[in-house]
Amino acid sequence: MSEQSRLPGPRLSQQEEAVLTAYLSGLTMVASARRVGVGLGTAKQYLERVKRKYAAAGRPAYTKLELAQRAVEDGLLPWAERPCRPAR
């Protein structure tokens, strides 16, 4: 996705983005919190803030799947944008 075709995303803090990408990479909330170096409650607060910011931007994301869709749209998950190669 080119820089110009990206949708306008909310401004996420570095910590919010770190928790979001860890969580969306398949880690549990506990593991995401550990990876970022925050407590579980703080990590949950970060994700709730991310959801509120997306809603305020007119792009609600209430579920993990919706968060993943928004993150791909905003270029936060570069590995999700790569085309899959067929198995040989």
Please explain how this structure is put together.
The chain has 88 residues and is mostly helical. It has one domain: Orthogonal Bundle (Arc Repressor Mutant, subunit A). Helix content is 52%, strand content 0%. It has 4 helices and no strands. Helix 1 (14-24) packs across helix 2 and helix 2 (29-36) crosses helix 3 (40-56). The chain is globular. It starts with 13 loop residues before the first helix and ends in a 15-residue tail after the last helix. 18% of the residues are buried. Mean pLDDT is 86; it is low at 1-5.
What are the main properties of this structure?
disordered N terminus, Arc Repressor Mutant, subunit A, mainly alpha
Broad CATH class: Mainly Alpha
Can you give the helix content as a percent range? 40-55%
Q: Counting H and I runs of at least 4 residues, what is the number of helices? A: 4
In round numbers, the mean pLDDT is: 86
Shape: globular
Low-confidence stretches: 1-5
SSE order, as H and E? HHHH
How many structural units, i.e. domains? 1
Main sheet characteristics? none
Class by alpha and beta content: mainly alpha
The N- and C-terminal alpha carbons lie at a distance of 27 Å
